[in-house]
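stage 2 :: seqdesign
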């Protein structure tokens, strides 16, 4: 604590801090206003706790310059003050370090001023750390006894928050010393210690279980509302607060939703719908505080230096579908697979490494990313690892072919006047009575693409194939988001667009092998499925079929090491053809890499 420190409250007497919390009890609620600085928030916090706060001059200036970024003023009840304030601080890279001997708390700002030293961390044991799991901004130090401490630093350092965190081996090679935020370390210790990493490492309730989140009414949204208006309306229904930076807020207010027609969102589906639209528009969210009032951080550009503040996800549940844009993390045990090799193996399926991370060691695999990705990958890996005699159970993960696209309520008809592809999309959405989102680049292309100057009249059974075919002719693709309610998306068929990739990427839908037969007419739909092989060595297949199958950026074939199963992702017709050919060769024993290489050469010569 340097000479430049400022003592905010001097009246707090020296008291013994309770064993399960290093902070003084909160005596009343506070009001946090949109225009408040974090310095004012801490002054209010101090007034209702009597807690003495201290910081250096550089941190004070940083607190004074940093606003809450809230969308509206919030009244925080007493039992939510500690978590709410910590959420705001942690999101902006501030940390709290209690002094147990004099009831002081020092405030640090990341990467400026005097950085904390090891002595500034609050010492806790494993049991105390478990009780401190909800504290996002609390700096703690915990020592563990493990079999081999040397295996952890290189694995975990890449995923630890960039400030206020460290992991190292002590003088004893079996002692592991961890420095960091209580919420983060509680998850890591659980991951290290658990005998069943498949249990959720929950440090706070997931968004689906936040308290005081009400969805008791439906919501009608016009297609021309701004993204900012959609966020405010949905959060009002959910009674959830959010903070958004000034730059991201300006983008929210300037952009429309990307929806082509009005949408009636039923009660109980508002959260899922909001998350889906955020995901499509390139926004992610993190849970800063799950108790009342719940608090989210919405962010458009994700960088490797942002702290994800991820909450846990139970694999195979519906939570990933309900919160597709919210960062989640989970760990799972895969006794039949080599978890240490899976991160590198699965990298082709993780389209943007900045928003997904995987780490594996002998205790299992930890996955962090957007909700739907984590839900999809954990579900597929569990199904493969738990398969008996190659009998894969994809129930709860795969979407049956008959449910991928909603049924058409009538024939698709357009008058003989010249129409654009965008007009066709509007008519298509109206027939399905579902939400249709179009990416910015696809919308510009569709508005300028004219259809033939003749009347269009397509029977209900052929509506999907007709629309999909029109998209295919213009280099566009159709997606079905893995969420409820159903949201369809039209994107450019290419995958990567630099930092804007999130809102231009086609999302694959998980299906089982049997369902592929029902998707024959959908040329642009991207699917992800698992194919078991009995006689073919799955490890040889990816390199073998790449000349034939891997000509398109969305299409990937992944072997899971010692598993006989393949993960295959790509356009539905090509995936169906590839899997059919592999299963035929697997059954009659005719598979040879040389034959596939020759087939690839023949196909290439015809292109």
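stage 2 :: out
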């Amino acid at each position: 604590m340097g000479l430049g420190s400022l003592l905010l409250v001097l009246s707090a007497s020296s008291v013994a801090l309770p064993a399960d919390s290093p902070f003084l009890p909160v005596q009343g609620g506070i009001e946090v206003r949109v225009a408040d600085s974090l310095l004012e928030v801490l002054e209010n916090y101090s007034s209702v706790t009597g807690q003495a706060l201290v910081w250096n001059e550089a941190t004070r200036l940083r607190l004074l310059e940093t606003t809450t970024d809230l969308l509206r003023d919030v009244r925080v009840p007493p039992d939510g003050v500690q978590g709410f304030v910590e959420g705001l601080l942690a999101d902006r890279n501030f940390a709290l370090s209690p002094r147990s001997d004099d009831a002081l708390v020092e405030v640090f700002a990341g990467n400026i001023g005097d950085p904390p030293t090891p002595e500034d961390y609050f010492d806790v044991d494993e049991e105390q750390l478990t009780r401190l799991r909800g504290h996002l901004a609390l700096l703690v130090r915990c020592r563990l006894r493990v079999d081999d401490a040397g295996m952890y630093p290189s694995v975990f350092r890449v995923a630890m928050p960039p400030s206020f965190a460290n992991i190292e081996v002590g003088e004893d090679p079996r002692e592991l010393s961890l420095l960091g935020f209580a919420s983060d370390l509680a998850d890591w210790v659980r991951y290290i210690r658990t005998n069943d990493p498949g249990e959720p490492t929950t440090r706070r309730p997931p968004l689906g279980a936040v308290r005081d989140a009400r969805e008791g009414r439906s919501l009608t949204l016009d297609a021309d509302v701004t993204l900012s208006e959609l966020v405010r309306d949905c959060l009002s229904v959910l009674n959830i607060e959010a903070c958004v930076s000034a730059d991201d807020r300006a983008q929210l207010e300037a952009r429309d939703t990307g929806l082509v027609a009005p949408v009636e969102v039923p009660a109980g589906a508002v959260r899922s719908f909001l998350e889906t639209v955020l995901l499509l528009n390139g926004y992610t969210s993190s849970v800063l505080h799950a108790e009342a009032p719940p608090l989210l951080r919405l962010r458009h550009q994700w960088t490797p230096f942002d702290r994800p503040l991820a909450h846990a996800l139970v694999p195979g549940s519906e939570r990933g579908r309900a919160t597709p844009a919210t960062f989640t993390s989970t760990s799972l045990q895969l006794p039949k697979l080599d978890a240490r090799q899976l991160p590198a193996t699965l990298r082709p399926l993780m389209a943007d490494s900045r928003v997904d991370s995987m780490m594996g060691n002998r205790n299992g695999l930890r996955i962090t990313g957007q909700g739907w990705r984590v839900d999809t990958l954990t579900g597929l890996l569990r199904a493969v690892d738990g398969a008996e005699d190659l009998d894969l159970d994809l129930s709860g993960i795969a979407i049956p072919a008959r449910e991928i696209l909603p049924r058409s309520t009538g024939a698709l008809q357009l008058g003989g006047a010249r129409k654009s592809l965008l007009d066709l999309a509007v008519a298509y959405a109206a027939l399905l009575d579902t939400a249709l989102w179009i990416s910015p680049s696809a919308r510009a292309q569709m508005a300028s693409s004219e259809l033939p100057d003749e009347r269009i009249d397509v029977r209900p059974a052929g509506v999907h194939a007709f629309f999909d075919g029109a998209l295919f002719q213009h280099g566009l693709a159709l997606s079905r988001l893995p969420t409820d309610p159903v949201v369809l998306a039209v994107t450019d068929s290419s995958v990567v667009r630099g930092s804007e990739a999130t809102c231009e990427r086609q999302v694959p839908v998980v299906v089982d092998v049997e369902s592929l037969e029902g998707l024959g007419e959908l040329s642009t739909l991207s699917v992800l499925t698992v194919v078991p092989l009995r006689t073919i060595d799955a490890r040889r297949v990816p390199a073998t079929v790449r000349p034939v199958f891997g000509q398109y950026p969305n299409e990937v074939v992944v072997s899971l090491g010692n598993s006989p199963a393949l993960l295959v992702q790509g356009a539905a017709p090509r995936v169906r053809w590839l899997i059919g050919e592999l299963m035929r060769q697997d059954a009659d024993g005719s598979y040879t890499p040389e034959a596939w290489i020759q087939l690839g050469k023949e196909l290439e010569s015809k292109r």
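stage 3 :: structure notes
- Residues 1-18, 495-502 have pLDDT under 50 and may be disordered.
- The radius of gyration is 26 Å.
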